[in-house]
Specification:
It contains 15 helices and six strands. The chain is of the alpha+beta class.
């Protein structure tokens, strides 16, 4: 409780000290407030113009052209344009288009103008949607509107123009690269054609040199195998011809390897065997039909064997073709045909052997030629692949350009166009007047408090005790107390008069500003 009382007494001592130095409050208030009020009153009105634009980045062509055309990210494009809109080059364009550059004649003045525009033009994004607010304040309402309009036009045209310029730049670059790769492709094709003409006798049509050699060797071995097979067939036929002559009842059937001699009884024997098999399915071996069929089969087989013995028993004493049977004639013709095939295969064998020998003679040149061929084909393949890829990119870029012409990816919708402001938006004189009033009295109070601490005035005995550590035994009053009280009342009256004048001045300016605003709103 005692500490609280001491704190209260200390605060009261500070207030008494400030009150005793109240002349500094009067001095500061008259030095700051009238000058500040006059400065704020003389400040020109500022008009603010603003525009609100919505950037629609949705396009129906985006899902349709996915994977077919080159697509950019419209969100990134509009964000980049918003960040670079207030660059120095764009600010200079805005100054030229709004005729602000003709208001200055020096380089320093032009630099200050550009800096002022850069500081005063505001581009803010509202919320998550692509809604942008462009604003600018100036003493001239028409100029404020014109600057906002030029900024809005630059924002819209810059976004669309950048997209078109990027497309044109990409198209020119692709055209240059296509022309260059086309020239390189023609040169590579010419080199490859010259190389193939130079080594057409060594380079295989398909595959490698070694595969060609291996294929020729395989063909030679296959031909030689066929020759041996045909020779075996000729030998077999000649052995049959030398064993006897054929009768009119025989025929020669050419099989896979050796001819088989058939008689006129073979078909009857085969059909009778089939009939016996069918009878056995229904009857036993003791059935009369089965017994009769078996007897007939035995008779036919005996007749066949007799004819075969008669055939092999015939001989030709002088080898004259006129004495040959029809079967022997057929065998001789078959031998002649086989010998003809052997002769043709011999020719093919010789051709394969010559080709293999020629390839083996060139085998030392093959590694170098194939390495050079591989390098040429690789260069040609890479150049052709790049050329075709550039053509595809060119088609994709052309499709993108046509899509941009038919439907822009960025649609700018002006929500609020820039207008000429009718009422000033600044300066905030009410706020400034109040701030100057508070500043004037606040500076005076602070100065009075500082001086009261530097040169304190003792009003109580306890203050003297705290300063000197000596007890105060008593206090005496001033002999001329009435004169002192009269002087103090005069000081209080002057302080109240001074502060009242400042407050009255503040009230008059406040009322005038409110009346001015109401008057403007009434006429509008």
């Amino acid at each position: 409780m005692q500490e609280l009382q001491q704190t209260i007494e200390m605060v009261l001592d500070y207030i008494r000290g400030i009150w005793l130095k109240k002349r500094y409050i009067m001095l500061c208030s008259w030095l700051i407030c009238p000058i500040g009020f006059g400065y704020v009153a003389m400040m020109p009105d500022v008009y603010k113009s603003e525009a609100v634009v919505f950037v629609d980045t949705r396009s129906m062509l985006q899902p349709l052209l996915s994977g077919l055309a080159i697509q950019t990210n419209p969100q990134q494009e509009i964000a980049m344009m918003a960040q670079t809109l207030l660059s120095r080059s764009n600010i200079e364009i805005i100054a030229r288009e709004s005729d602000l550059d003709i208001t200055v004649n020096t380089a320093d003045g032009y630099a200050k103008l550009i800096n002022a525009l850069s500081d005063n033009i505001k581009l803010d994004r509202t919320g998550r949607n692509n809604i942008y607010n462009i604003s600018y304040s100036n003493k001239s309402p028409e100029l404020a509107k014109r600057v906002v309009q030029e900024t809005l036009d630059l924002f819209v045209e810059g976004s669309l123009g950048n997209n078109r310029r990027d497309t044109d730049t990409a198209s020119r670059f692709l055209d240059e690269q296509i022309s260059e790769y086309e020239t390189r492709l023609i040169e590579a094709e010419q080199r490859l054609a010259d190389f193939q003409r130079r080594y057409n006798d060594i380079l295989p049509v398909s595959g490698s040199f070694y595969s060609t050699l291996q294929g020729a060797t395989g063909n030679l071995e296959s031909t030689q195998l066929q020759i041996r097979e045909l020779q075996q067939q000729v030998t077999s036929l000649k052995s049959q011809m030398s064993s006897g002559r054929a009768t009119d009842g025989f025929d020669v059937r050419q099989g896979d390897n050796t001819p088989v001699i058939t008689t006129r009884y073979d078909d009857r024997i085969k059909s009778l065997e089939e009939k016996i098999d069918q009878l056995k399915l229904r009857f036993t071996d003791k059935h009369p039909d089965v017994i009769e069929a078996k007897n007939l089969l035995a008779s036919l087989e005996k007749s066949r064997q007799d004819e075969l013995k008669a055939y092999f028993s015939e001989t030709s004493e002088d080898g004259d073709d006129t004495n040959l049977s029809p079967l022997a004639t057929e065998l001789k013709l078959e031998v002649s045909r086989l010998e003809g095939q052997i002769a043709s295969l011999r020719v093919r064998e010789s051709d394969y052997e010559a080709k293999i020998q020629e390839l083996r003679n060139k085998i030392d040149l093959v590694p170098q030629i194939e390495a050079e061929s591989t390098a040429l084909n690789r260069d040609y393949g890479i150049t052709k692949q790049k050329y075709e890829e550039l053509l595809r990119r060119k088609e994709a870029a052309e499709l993108s350009r046509r899509a941009d012409v038919s439907s822009e990816e960025l649609q700018f919708r002006i929500i609020e166009p820039p207008l000429v402001p009718d009422t000033p938006t600044g300066p905030k004189r009410l706020v400034y007047y109040t701030g100057i009033l508070v500043l004037g009295f606040g500076m005076g109070i602070a100065l009075a408090f500082a001086i009261s601490q530097i040169r304190p005035v003792l009003v109580r005995g306890r203050q003297l005790t705290s300063l000197t550590s000596f007890p105060v035994l008593g206090a005496v009053t001033h002999l001329n107390l009435k004169q002192i009280q009269r002087r103090n009342r005069m000081r209080v009256f002057l302080f109240i008069l001074s502060s009242g004048a400042i407050v009255t001045m503040y009230a008059i300016l406040l009322a005038a500003e409110v009346a001015h605003v109401n008057l403007v709103e009434r006429f509008l």
